[in-house]
Structure formats: structure tokens, C-alpha cells
Amino acid sequence: MSDPTSTARTARRSGPGESGAGLAAGPFRVDRDRIVASPFFARLAGVTQVVSPTGTGLVVHNRLTHSLQVAQVARAIAERVPDCDPDVVEAAALAHDLGHPPFGHQGEQVLDRLARERLGLPDGFEGNAQSFRIVTTIDLHGPTGTGLDLTAAVRAAILKYPWTRRGYPDPHPSRAAVPPRGGGPLPGEPEAGSAKFSCYETELDDLRSARAAFPGTGPWRQTVEAAVMDTADDVAYAIHDLEDFHRVGVLQQAGVAAELAGWRRNAGTSGPGAGLEAMRRRLADKDAWAYDDDLFAAAVDRVRDELVDGLLGVAFDGSMAAERAVAEFSARWTARLAGGVVRDPDPPVRSGPVALAGPQWHEVAVLKFVHQRFVLGRADLASYQRGQGTVLTGLVGALADWLADDDAPRLPARLHDLAELARSQGAPLEQARGRAVIDYTASLTDGQAGALLDVLTGRTGRIWTDAAVL
Fold first, then answer.
1. What's the rounded Cα separation, in Å, for the pair 31 and 129?
2. How much is the mean pLDDT over the chain?
């Protein structure tokens, strides 16, 4: 890696643009402060992590608390990794979810489908690409007319998936026999491009300029700081969502215990343990570079001992003792996982230059399985998410119709500005309107999305409050 103080890494899109005090604080600290001051960062407090923080009556993580935790874990990892700047990593971690739309990953999937099928946008929608668009194009909290004017190092570190949906780079990862993680095609849509990507075509020059500061980094490779941020995201996701659902009584010991013990007893051929065995086979097939039978079995045992027999062994009752148990579980696992990283200058295609060591990699896989199987796989959550998808579908349709009619002078000012911005980037009129609708919708909180749909469908009488989001 280049010297962390090199001109290329600290270069901004439009020159220094800093006061003497800003430079004294260090360019990467300035980047972090700009990100934290952004209204896009503040809105994450009202955006779903797993279940919506709006109206549930539950105290659960949202995208803001998740981002803060990722930043904390990322900095702890960065301080252990040679040739890695902790300030760059922290800034990227704080920015990595800026583009997540209302209703979290469910909202992301719905907006992508609507963007491609309803609005004719070849790039569709992707939360990571939206984050990059915000910091380079949409936000106005830097010294220039658009974007935050971040350094090349921080912009590169935000690029978890450093490619566009289809064309860049060539050869494109979606066409590879073994693509990088996230780079494979959308399920059932081989011509649609990569399922995950970190840049729309409109911001490709920003991606290229950021990556140019790291000439030794291969075309599909993350920078070291991006890999640290990505690893920290995995760690935070694996631990903190389990805390939430233990607290609210959704994650029950009996079901998790039966699954893990069933796999141990009968290799999961049928009945309890079958889901874990299916996940194990997928790991062995897709990630043979990292998978190991003995490490997987050891990971199952550790999760059973510490999660099932430990944390879940006593129902959460809100007492100080129960809170202490959660805090100790979280601290112990965070320290174990964050402390278990390896630096690899020539990583396998599905890994990165910084990754979890073998035992921790398997443990994260098992923890994620528990979350997927016993939280995300619940029928009640599926019905809840279906309703959220209905909200976004109605909202996108109503906004697109409004942009297309003759009432344009009375459009919300921000929607009008976003359409003009997309036109200035060379998009044809219809695609510019479509991108504006997606940018506008993605910038809302969960509560704002629901309230705005009520306004646009005439279901609210609170015009001066619900319509304020316009």
C-alpha cells in the first residue's frame, strides 16, 4: 500500500478545499466529520436494520446504531492491521450504509425491482452504490457544489464491491466462473449484471479516480481499508442482531438448541439439523478456499455453548443481570471476532486482503445461520416485510406518476432538483425522472415513507405534518 500520507490517497475530487484548521485535524478526520454531519447519516436513526424502529414499540438496532458499531469494530481491527489507516476505516464504516432505503434489505430488493422493471433504469438500485452516489453526487455538505469532497482513500474504502452492475471493469465479475463475493449475477437473471455493486455508471469517474490512488490493487480487489470495513460489518451483523431478538423474546433457546444438537447427532440428514447441514454444504461448495470440516464442527460447538446454553439459557426479563449477560456476550464475541483477522496480500477471489481467520470465519457463518433461520425466516416477519414492500411500490408509483404529469411546477422542490441533477449527468428524460424517484424514496426514513404514501393516496387528514416530508 502507498504511504498513508501520500498525495494520491489524500487528494479530494476538487482540490484541497480545507482551512488550516481542517488540515491540522488530518484529511481523513475531516472526511469522518463531514459524514457524521450529513443529514443522510442522521436519517439512519429512522431506517430498519432488521425490523423497523418506527411504531414497533421495540428497542432494536437501527441503521445508525449499526453504523456506529461497525465503525467501532472496524477501528479496533484497523489498529491491528499493518499499513491500514484507522481514520480511513472509521470514516468508511460510518458512510457504508448512507444509501440504505426505508425498510432495510427488503426495501433494497423492492426498489431494485421497481427501478429496473417500472422505471427502466439499467443500473437498478443497490444500497452500496447509493451510498457512493450520496457522498460523491447528492449530498451538499462539502465545500463544493455536489458531494462531500472526500479523499480518494475514504472513497475507495467505501467501495465494498468495486465494480458497476454491468460494464466495469472488463472482464466483469458477473461473468466469471468464480466471481468475487457479491459479484455473481442476480439469481435467475444472468444478464442483469452483478447482484451487489458499489457504483452506478453515473459515478464511475469517481470510482476510477479513487481506485487510481491504489495502483497495486487488482480490478476486483478491495483496498485494505475496504476489506477491514467489510469484515467489521460482518462481525457487527453476526452479533448485535442476535442481541435484539433475544431481548424481545423472538430468539428462543429450544428451537436453536434442537437445530444445532440435531446436526451433531445425525449430520442433519432430516429433521432438526437439516437446515444447518444445507448451509454447511453451500459453504463447502462456494468457499472451499476457507471451509474446513473440523473448524465448522468446532464453530457449531462454540455457538451452542455460548449462545444456546449461555445467553439463551436464561430468558431476558429486563433485569440488570439480564442486561449484563447480553453486554458480556456481545463484548466477548466482538473481541474474539475482531481479534481474529488475517492479512493476505494475495487473497482468493472470494476473500479480501484482510479477512477473518479460519475459526472466526466459521463461527460468523454459524451465527448468521441462526439469525437467518430463527429470525429472518419467520412467517410473521415475512408478512410484515411484504407490507413494507407494498408501501414502497405504491410510493414509487405515485411519485413517478406525479413527475410525468403536467403539474410539475408544484412538484416537491427536492424531487424536482433530483430530476435536474440526473439530467445534468446525461440521463434521458424518462430515466432522469426514474432516478430522481429512486433517489428521493431512498432518502426517506421508514416513518416518512409510510406518511408520504398516506398523503399521496389521500389517506391522511394531517396535511401540515404528514406532508412536511415533501
1. 18
2. 89
Q: Which three cell numbers stand for residue 334?
A: 466482538
> Rounded to whole angstroms, how far apart are CA atoms 132 and 266?
47
- CA of 63: how far to CAs of 35, 67, 119, 341, in Å? 14, 6, 27, 25
pLDDT for res 380 = 78
Rounded Cα gap, residues 359 and 339, in angstroms: 11
| Mean local confidence (pLDDT), 411-419 | 90
390 shares its domain with 406: yes
Tell me: the pLDDT tens digits for 122-165? 999 999 999 999 999 999 877 777 899 999 999 999 999 999 99
Of 21-35, 65-79, 121-135, 305-319, which gets the smallest average pLDDT?
21-35
Beta-strand relationship, 185-186 and 341-343: unpaired
Q: What is the pLDDT of residues 461-470, one digit of tens each?
A: 666 565 556 6
193 dihedral zone (left: phi>0; alpha: psi -120 to 50; beta): left
CB-CB contact of 143 with 166 (8 Å): no
What is the CB neighbour count within 10 angstroms for residue 300? 23
Model pLDDT, residue 248: 80
Digit-coded pLDDT (tens) for 360-390: 999 999 999 999 999 888 787 778 788 889 9
Give the start-end residues of each E strand in 386-450: none
State how far the Cα of 173 lies from the Cα of 181, in Å rounded to an integer.
Answer: 9
Domain encompassing residue 187: 4-223
Least confident of 14-18, 21-25, 155-159, 204-208: 21-25
Give the total number of structural domains in the chain: 3
Residue 423's H or E segment, with its range, is helix 413-424
Residue 462 resides in a domain = no
Cα–Cα distance between 337 and 341 in angstroms, integer? 7
Note whether 98 and 131 are within 8 A (CB).
Answer: yes
**Residue pointed to by grid coordinates 444500497:** 127
| Cα dihedral value 72, 75, 79, 83, nearest 10 | 170
Cell of 121: 433504469
Cα–Cα distance for residue pair 279/267, rounded to 1 Å: 12
- Which residue in 256, 254, 296 sits closest to 279, CA to CA? 296
CA distance 331 to 306: 12
Q: What is the DSSP letter of 312?
A: G
**Please, which residues bridge with residue 186 across strands?**
189
Q: Give the span between the Cα atoms of 238 and 87, in whole angstroms.
A: 24
Question: For the whole prediction, is pTM greater than 0.90?
Answer: yes
Same domain, 348 and 297: yes
Q: Are residues 30 and 178 in the same domain?
A: yes
